[in-house]
Design goal:
By secondary structure, the chain is of the alpha+beta class. The protein contains one helix and four strands, in the order ββββα.
């Protein structure tokens, strides 16, 4: 069982984040640079956007 409804999407695109957020003692560290502190694989994001465009929303 998932802890929250939004958790259901995490497994679908787990490979689109190259450098994930790091939890330490249940807390996220504030990034030292701009942004959220993650590195994203832009090629995979484009791929998933194309799949979503072709096949529709996967949440419904």
């Amino acid at each position: 069982m998932l802890s929250r409804a939004i958790d259901s999407m995490y497994y679908l695109h787990a490979d689109d984040i190259i450098e994930p957020l790091h939890l330490e003692n249940g807390r996220l560290r504030v990034p030292t640079g701009p942004g959220l502190g993650v590195s994203v694989d832009e090629d995979k994001l484009r791929h998933y956007a194309a799949v979503n465009e072709r096949e529709g929303d996967l949440t419904g």
